[in-house]
């Protein structure tokens, strides 16, 4: 046992410590930010080391499998999958991208089980669960717990996150929950509805009581940006027990887009600089999309470069904001999805992966993506 622990500690030193260096807060990458957050969470209670060790072992095994499997399929295997197990939701949030999406014919429990198993076998390390409201599916937490080789990051409105559900999440040992909140009570309820703010705070209280790592998720717009990057709000999230904070810049899609919420370049840069400052001052790790995804080269990592989205019906989409699916995991599984000619065609055109006006490059180039989709559908790809 001592030999095993010594080997684990050696691995921790080699694999984790580089992620914890704080010199680079400008472009650290999402993986490093999450690892820093979890490390801080562990340091508050050393008994939590088992969570970090389990996570590290899972990441190392996934990387080894991913490299091996990529040679077999002759294509990219993403580090991260995004999946929407349901598009049904008990909220009607203003400006939500998911409204109007097909919520029928969801993947069954057996199909979800197969998806998670194939993800483990191929070397995917993390699955981001979005929607819809994921916890409307009662089968979800048991399925995630079953596949402990994966890290699941679940984005929820928190309304269904009871003390019992929080205990189940804690027992799983492989779930990080992000509770959606839009700033203060007025801002949250204006977008999400009456009672949404209190539901989010209660969810955080339940998660904190169980001692699990969790955070908040906020959509930053021109309307709520000042609150989100204010010290009172960040201090409140720290006091609530958040280890992570995810900011996602608003993308004007869905049934009723709010173009008045979209950042201009000046507002975007102001928000980013404030996030960088808060990272150096607060014991809470803040992740900002798209900046931390796009990195120094300002290049989208979706369409199979580092991630893609599996929709509710199993369709393989470049990302949640680009709902075009040429392939489906119900025919061919995840392995065939990774070899998608549609995703490969997007990756072969770097201009489609750069943004200027909006937070999402693929949304910004929607016309070109749609043309490419239809040309492949008709067998006319050049």
Class based on secondary structure composition and strand pairing: alpha/beta
Percentage of residues assigned to helices:
40-55%
Order of helices and strands: HHHEHEHEHEHHEHHEHEHEEEHHHH
Low-confidence stretches are none
CATH architecture label: Alpha-Beta Barrel
CATH class: Alpha Beta
Into how many domains do the coordinates divide?
Answer: 1
Provide the β-strand percentage band: 5-15%
Give a short overview.
With 382 residues, this protein is an alpha/beta fold. It contains 16 helices and 10 strands.
Question: Would you kindly provide a written description of the structure presented here, covering whatever features stand out?
Answer:
The protein contains 16 helices and ten strands. The chain has one domain (2-8, 28-377): Aldolase class I (TIM Barrel, Alpha-Beta Barrel), CATH 3.20.20.70. It has a ten-stranded mixed beta sheet with strand order 7-6-5-4-3-2-1-8-9-10, sandwiched between helices. 46% of the residues lie in helices and 12% in strands. The N and C termini lie far apart (58 Å). It is α/β, with parallel strands linked by helices and 382 residues long.
List keywords for this structure.
alpha/beta, TIM Barrel, ten-stranded mixed β-sheet, 382 residues
């Amino acid at each position: 046992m001592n030999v095993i622990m010594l080997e684990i500690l050696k691995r921790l030193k080699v694999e984790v410590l580089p992620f914890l260096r704080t010199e680079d807060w400008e472009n650290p990458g999402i993986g490093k930010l999450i690892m820093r957050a979890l490390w801080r969470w562990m340091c508050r209670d050393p008994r939590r080391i088992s969570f970090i060790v389990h996570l590290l072992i899972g990441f190392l095994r996934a990387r080894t499998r991913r490299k091996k499997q990529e040679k077999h399929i002759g294509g990219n295997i993403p580090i991260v999958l995004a999946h929407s197990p349901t598009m049904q939701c008990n909220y009607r949030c203003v400006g939500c991208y998911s409204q109007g999406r097909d919520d029928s014919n969801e993947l069954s429990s057996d199909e979800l089980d197969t998806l998670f198993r194939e993800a483990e076998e191929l070397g995917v390390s993390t699955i981001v669960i979005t929607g819809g409201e994921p916890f409307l599916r009662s089968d979800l937490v048991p399925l995630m717990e079953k596949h402990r080789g994966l890290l699941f990051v679940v984005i929820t409105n928190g309304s269904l996150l009871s003390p019992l559900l929080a205990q189940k999440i804690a027992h799983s040992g492989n779930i990080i929950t992000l509770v959606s909140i839009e700033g203060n009570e007025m801002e949250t309820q204006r977008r999400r509805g009456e009672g949404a703010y209190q539901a989010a705070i209660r969810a955080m209280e339940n998660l904190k009581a169980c001692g699990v790592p969790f955070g908040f998720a906020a959509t930053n717009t021109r309307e709520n940006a000042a609150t989100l990057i204010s010290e009172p709000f960040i201090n409140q999230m720290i006091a609530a027990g958040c280890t992570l904070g995810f900011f996602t810049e608003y993308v004007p899609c869905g049934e009723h887009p709010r173009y008045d919420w979209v950042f201009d370049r000046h507002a975007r840069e102001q928000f980013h600089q404030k996030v960088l400052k808060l990272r150096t001052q607060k014991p809470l790790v803040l992740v900002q999309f798209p900046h931390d995804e796009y990195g120094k080269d300002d290049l989208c990592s979706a369409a199979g470069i580092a991630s893609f989205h599996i929709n509710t019906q199993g369709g393989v989409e470049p990302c949640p904001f680009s709902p075009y699916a040429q392939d489906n995991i119900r025919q061919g599984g995840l392995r065939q999805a990774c070899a998608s000619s549609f995703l490969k065609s997007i990756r072969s055109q770097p201009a489609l992966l750069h943004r200027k006006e909006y937070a999402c490059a693929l949304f910004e180039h929607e016309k070109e993506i749609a043309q490419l989709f239809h040309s492949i559908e008709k067998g006319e790809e050049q």
